[in-house]
Design goal:
3 copies of one chain form a homotrimer. By secondary structure, chain A is mostly helical. The first copy, chain A, is about 75% helix and about 0% strand. Chain A has a single domain, classed as Membrane associated eicosanoid/glutathione metabolism-like domain (Four Helix Bundle (Hemerythrin (Met), subunit A), Up-down Bundle), CATH 1.20.120. Chain A contains 5 helices and no strands. The first copy, chain A, is elongated and about 65 Å long. Chains B and C meet through α2 and α3 of B and α1, α3 and α5 of C.
């Protein structure tokens, strides 16, 4: 049996966890959109002029820190989660220990939830956000380096 | 035959449609770049100081609503299309009815084209853009939930 | 043997190169984050109010061109690299000549490194950045069109 059919199979708990946590992270990123809409409506900050009919009777603003905050958290997700997704697949193909892989997926997912929470829900002083961010960053970097060392076809 | 080799195969029309519509959506996102360049050149809004030699003889501006509009549409694509791509693969692995899968890909792709059209080409009042956006959002969310319920390896 | 098991295998150098260069590009994108942090700390531009305790004794600014520059380069990566990743996989499934595929991955990766270098490290006048960008753009477009023509399941 080839390595790939041994790795990319429902018999491999690491692969199942990859699909599960990947989908959880997609849902997590999706939540940023209604969160932004809620802040926009509460603070009266339409993103586009043609949206102003949704804000009738509200005092409109150009920007508000609470809107910017959710946007920054969303952008940080965009910068970190899709590349994790892609490199985690490359990492899976290196046939890692399933328990290690599962734990890395768990910690990454948890770290990204904490990052958003302390950034955009309840603002917590640094280094809370920095630590959450660096945790996900190091896991992504570890996976990328492991995959490069394994495949090294330049 | 394993489920994966039954799903990830050119004999599965849902898989072929996934690759086709995925590539169409990539082309769709790519179009946002020349569209932005066109608006920047027309409106005289260079993104970076070293670009000003391309704008000779033009009156330069810091920003223009038509440029911002294309940028917002592009950013919205970035927020919605890559996660769809990723979760649609997870959804395919749940072995869905091929016709349902095909129709979801069709509707998502159409919705994203409409979103860009009413946002950045011909501005249409709300709820046009909101409806286009929510259609793609709900499809992505449905796929994520279906994949999580199927794999649930936490 | 099915086409997919002939393409998605460690015996296919194009597949190994895809995983290798994909992981290299993930590392390349990751570098943008510490680069941004470095510029923020040097220029005194905290992204969020709660970060100001990290900047003690520094004169703080709302923005600085050097910070914006790295951010623009990062955003351009986000606009171009994940879609390349996705469409390169679709392209691989069309069973391309391995040497051609390998060279396209090489040129794309090199072009993206050059793009960042001339944009955010040593500013080089146009058309340096434009050429680097268009190289990656054309490769991504070629792959998307090839995949669509091959699968065409609409």
């Amino acid at each position: 049996m080839s390595i790939i059919s041994r790795v990319i199979t429902f018999d491999n708990p690491a692969f199942n966890a990859y699909v599960t946590y990947g989908s959880v992270l997609v849902l997590k990123m999706m939540i940023m959109a209604p969160l932004t809409v809620k802040q926009r409506l509460t603070r009266g900050v339409p993103i586009s002029p043609e949206d102003s009919n949704v804000y009738k009777g509200k005092q409109l603003r150009k920007s508000h820190e609470d809107v910017d905050r959710v946007r920054r958290a969303h952008l940080n997700d965009l910068e970190n989660i899709p590349i994790f997704f892609l490199v985690a697949f490359a990492y899976l193909l290196t046939d890692p220990d399933p328990t290690t892989a599962l734990n890395l997926f768990r910690v990454f997912t948890l770290a990204r939830f904490i990052h958003t929470f302390v950034y955009a829900i309840v603002v917590v002083p640094q280094p809370a956000r920095g630590l959450a961010w660096v945790t996900g960053f190091l896991i992504t970097g570890y996976m990328a380096v492991k995959a490069i060392c394994h495949f090294k076809t330049f």
